[in-house]
Amino acid sequence: MTESTLSLHEKDRSKMPLEYTTEEGDLRIVGFWIFLAAELVLFGTLFGTYLVLQSHTAGGPTAKDLFEIGPVMAETIVLLVSSFTCGLSTIELRRHNKKGLIGWLIVTILLGLVFVGLEVNEFYTYAVHEGAPISRSAFLSGFFVLLGTHGCHVSLGIIWIIGILLQLGKRGITPVTARKAFMAGLYWHFLDVVWIFIFTAVYLTGLVI
Amino acid sequence: MDENQNQMSEQVRAGFPWKQVIGLLLSLALTFIALWIAVGLSLPVHVTLTIIVGLAIFQAFIQLFMFMHVTEGTEPVHQLIGILFGIYVAFAVVGGTLWILAYAL
């Protein structure tokens, strides 16, 4: 075995992207991946619950009655594009271009806000106009808890990125702010991954079964 | 910051973000293909479900490798093991729950 790369010589570490240039930043990013793995398990339990309860509508509206493909596609495309603009912000970070980084992060959170708005509107329509609130059936409890948990994560991500934007504005791109911006990007992409499975397992499956 | 210029940033400096654009186009294409298979075609239910879940997994891996830089860092094997274990547990929970409760409810 060669020497652990965590004890890289300063010179070698300085060739890495900025967020990896300190041992602390390096370890924190690995730690963040472990956090994302745990989040994956959290969403896994909610998916399991939802899929089991999907058919238990207690005489209330079914998935087929409720879901409309138009708003769902709008949410999906907005979130996919926001994941893309978030990827562009990471590229600007690697170029040490503060303006580009801040600009793409702002586009990302604006798209995030559009997504949350669309989702809140969807929930409101279901609960108020379609007679399908969370308490109506096991299917709807599972649906609102799974989608609500994802929506809360997106909202939290927006607040987190706003905090990072303030720090970037104040301190510029340093190893610390670079690490934070990079981790927020990972989190945002992760939420898009979860949405891909919500789109497939909740909406498309609901339209098929 | 200019004093922090390093090799990686110089490599990235030139060029168009092809990886990101291809990732976006592939994601959009997979989303619409999945929609078309589910709504447009009328295949048997289990065939449809198998295909769209397969497409979703493929799309998730696009995000992981094209956007999330999962293979970067000084020792990416640590985060790869972590995330793969997370994926394994998540699928075991979902698959196991469906399998155990399929006939019980």
Description:
The complex is a heterodimer of chains A (209) and B (105). Chain A has 209 residues and is mainly alpha-helical. Chain A has seven helices and no strands. Chain B has four helices and no strands. In chain B, helix 2 packs antiparallel against helix 3. The longest helix of chain B is centred in the C-terminal third of the chain and has 26 residues. Classes of the chains: A mainly alpha (209), B mainly alpha (105). At the A-B interface, helix 2, helix 4 and helix 7 of A face helix 1, helix 2, helix 3 and helix 4 of B.
Shape of chain A: elongated
Q: What Rg of chain B is obtained from the alpha carbons, in whole angstroms?
A: 19 Å
Count every beta strand of chain B, where a strand is a DSSP E run of 2 or more residues.
Answer: 0
User: CATH superfamily of chain A, called what?
Assistant: Cytochrome c oxidase, subunit III, four-helix bundle
Cα separation of the termini of chain A: 53 Å
Count of DSSP-assigned helices of chain B? 4
CATH topology of chain A: Four Helix Bundle (Hemerythrin (Met), subunit A)
Order of helices and strands of chain B: HHHH
In the CATH hierarchy, what is the architecture of chain A at level 2?
Answer: Up-down Bundle
Radius of gyration of chain A: 20 Å
Percent of residues in helices of chain A comes to over 70%
Instruction: Round the mean pLDDT of chain B to the nearest integer and report it.
Output: 83
Q: In CATH's first tier, which class of chain A applies?
A: Mainly Alpha
Number of strands of chain A: 0
Judged by helices, strands and strand pairing, the structural class of chain A is mainly alpha
The percent of residues in helical segments of chain B reads over 70%
Total of domains of chain B: 2
Low-confidence runs of chain B (pLDDT<50, min 5 residues)? 1-10
Whole-number mean pLDDT of chain A:
91
β-strand percent of chain A reads under 5%
Structural class of chain B: mainly alpha
